[in-house]
Design a protein that fits this description.
277 residues; mainly beta; seven-stranded antiparallel β-sheet; globular
């Protein structure tokens, strides 16, 4: 006997069901749009600048020392972590350091995972407590003088909390440079981001989205906390004056470096995604 087919009834959706369906559709479309947008700007895969084993591809410059004189083994790799350490120092004595990646970059997203650990070494300035930085659009280490403290660059300032007070991270500092924000030239040296405070030794993910001489964004744990454009050399800064060519102050590319400023800090990931110009 042939089975009798029952008619299929299409029950009407309630208003709540319609809203849920539309919300789910919007989420799918938004995620797809974001993925397509990133892929359209990307020019390849993420590149690991730090190999997790040694300092291959990096150059060290510490104040008062020649290029690649890694005084006190300041920059080292232990257990897959790039560490900034001072256990071989007697006192800090103004030995600001930077470790530079070997290549220059212009359009990219840089992702760094960092955390502050331990105590600040004696002799470090008070403002350098739980303080480090990612320097972008920087001068080359070969062009720095022996006693120069900081490369001319745009600094993404990394700060940690003291356990009590609010203190944003991924701020902006400008050694030898200026930027434009909200259509106005900003000459103030440091400018705070909108980030929350990160206390203790927790890992924090900092990203910098760089579009040459156009937009630069600071991102903390996935949230945009600062945005500006037109990074440029400060014609009144003695170090910047040495690298201005043909009167052109605008910065379109430069070195990437990580700081040592007297407080131990660790980096477990340093990777870069090239973007199309």
């Amino acid at each position: 006997m042939a089975k009798r087919r029952l008619p299929i009834r299409h029950l009407p959706l309630s208003m709540i069901q319609w809203r849920s369906l539309l919300l789910a559709l919007c989420i799918v479309l938004t995620c797809t749009h974001c993925a397509v947008g990133l892929n359209s700007r990307s020019n390849g895969r993420w590149i690991s600048l730090f190999n997790g084993k040694d300092l291959e591809g990096w150059k060290v410059k510490i104040t008062g020392h020649e290029l690649n004189d890694n005084y006190g083994n300041t920059f080292r790799v232990e257990n897959g972590i790039l560490k900034v350490s001072y256990d071989q120092y007697y006192t800090f004595d103004g030995k600001f350091g930077h470790i530079f990646y070997k290549d220059k970059f212009s359009h990219y997203i840089l992702r760094v995972e960092y955390r502050f650990v331990g105590d600040q070494i004696s002799g470090g300035p008070e403002w350098a407590f739980r303080n480090s930085g990612i320097m972008i659009h920087g001068q080359l280490p070969e062009s720095m003088t022996k006693d120069q403290n900081f490369p001319v660059s745009i600094e993404v300032q990394l700060l940690g909390g003291n356990g009590v007070d609010e203190r944003s991270t991924c701020n902006l500092c400008t050694p030898g440079t200026h930027i434009v924000m909200d259509g106005k030239l900003v000459t103030r040296h440091c400018n705070n981001s909108r980030s929350k405070t990160y206390h203790g030794d927790q890992w924090v993910t900092a990203e910098v989205e760089v579009h040459g001489n156009s937009t630069i964004r600071h991102i903390v744990n996935g949230e945009i906390v600062l945005e500006y454009e037109q990074p440029q050399l400060d014609e009144n800064d003695p170090d910047a004056q040495k690298i201005i060519e043909n009167g052109d102050k605008m910065l379109h590319e430069g070195s990437i470096s990580l700081q040592s400023e007297s407080h131990p800090v660790e980096f477990r990931k340093v990777e870069l995604l090239p973007l199309k110009e």
